[in-house]
UniProtKB/TrEMBL annotation:
<keyword id="KW-0238">DNA-binding</keyword>
<dbReference type="Pfam" id="PF16859">
    <property type="entry name" value="TetR_C_11"/>
</dbReference>
<dbReference type="InterPro" id="IPR036271">
    <property type="entry name" value="Tet_transcr_reg_TetR-rel_C_sf"/>
</dbReference>
<dbReference type="InterPro" id="IPR011075">
    <property type="entry name" value="TetR_C"/>
</dbReference>
<feature type="DNA-binding region" description="H-T-H motif">
    <location>
        <begin position="47"/>
        <end position="66"/>
    </location>
</feature>
<feature type="domain" description="HTH tetR-type">
    <location>
        <begin position="24"/>
        <end position="84"/>
    </location>
</feature>
<protein>
    <submittedName>
        <fullName>TetR/AcrR family transcriptional regulator</fullName>
    </submittedName>
</protein>
<dbReference type="Pfam" id="PF00440">
    <property type="entry name" value="TetR_N"/>
</dbReference>
<dbReference type="InterPro" id="IPR050109">
    <property type="entry name" value="HTH-type_TetR-like_transc_reg"/>
</dbReference>
<keyword id="KW-0804">Transcription</keyword>
<keyword id="KW-0805">Transcription regulation</keyword>
<feature type="region of interest" description="Disordered">
    <location>
        <begin position="1"/>
        <end position="23"/>
    </location>
</feature>
<dbReference type="InterPro" id="IPR001647">
    <property type="entry name" value="HTH_TetR"/>
</dbReference>
<dbReference type="InterPro" id="IPR009057">
    <property type="entry name" value="Homeodomain-like_sf"/>
</dbReference>
Length: 209
């Protein structure tokens, strides 16, 4: 058991600092357990006291740092966004977006990650703070991959004025829809179709303006 710190100073809002040392170890342990609980049991079973116990961290520390379950989920999503793989650059917009689609498919097919995302998406439908945290997560990921589209515009592969963020979202959208409506993670062929469809639409000027 890691004892709670002696300081009575309030903890900063999750995600506003980059902790080091013992604080980083506590955060890593707590976020790992939170992700496990979400993946295994869903949002309804996420409890700060239980997370503290499973992570071997003082309950007071967890309550002071995260404050609520939604605060913990927000920090978990922020950490996931930071830890996600960087974009791939293949030299063509289609190649880049195929790589993006393949990454999404692998993530959704992963037993832990796929279940975790389903749990968070379900929670976001009825909890405003979780919904905002999920939006921030995807804002980070879209911003990471948008330069692939911008480079495609610069190379003349796509029309000037193409909205890079909308193209990236158009790749992921059908893959998440397939997961949520069928319960089955999209396969590699689905990823190829999603990337090809997004690029074809972009070349046709659908995302201009």
């Amino acid at each position: 058991m890691i004892a709670a710190p002696d300081s009575t100073e309030p903890e900063p809002e999750p995600g506003t600092v980059r902790p080091g040392g013992r604080t980083a170890r506590v955060r890593t342990a707590v976020l790992r357990v939170a992700g496990d609980v979400l993946a295994e049991q869903g949002f309804a079973h996420l409890d700060l006291a239980d997370v503290a116990r499973r992570a071997g961290v003082g309950k007071t520390t967890v309550y002071r740092r995260w404050g609520s379950v939604t605060g913990l989920v927000a920090d978990l999503l922020g950490d996931m966004a930071e830890q996600s793989l960087p974009r791939t650059e293949t030299g063509s917009v289609l190649g880049d977006l195929r790589a993006n689609a393949a990454l999404v498919c692998r993530t959704l097919a992963d037993p832990r990650q796929g279940a975790l995302f389903r749990a968070v998406i379900a929670a976001a439908a009825c909890d405003a703070r979780t919904a905002e945290a999920l939006r921030r997560f995807y804002d980070v990921r879209v911003a990471e991959w948008a330069p692939c589209v911008e480079q495609g515009v610069a190379r003349g592969e796509l029309p000037v004025g193409t909205d890079a963020g909308e193209v990236v979202r158009a790749v992921s959208a059908p893959l998440y829809y397939a997961l949520l409506t069928s319960g089955v993670a999209p396969d590699a062929a689905a990823g190829e179709r999603a990337a090809a469809a997004a690029v074809a639409a972009a070349r046709g000027g659908v995302f201009v303006g």
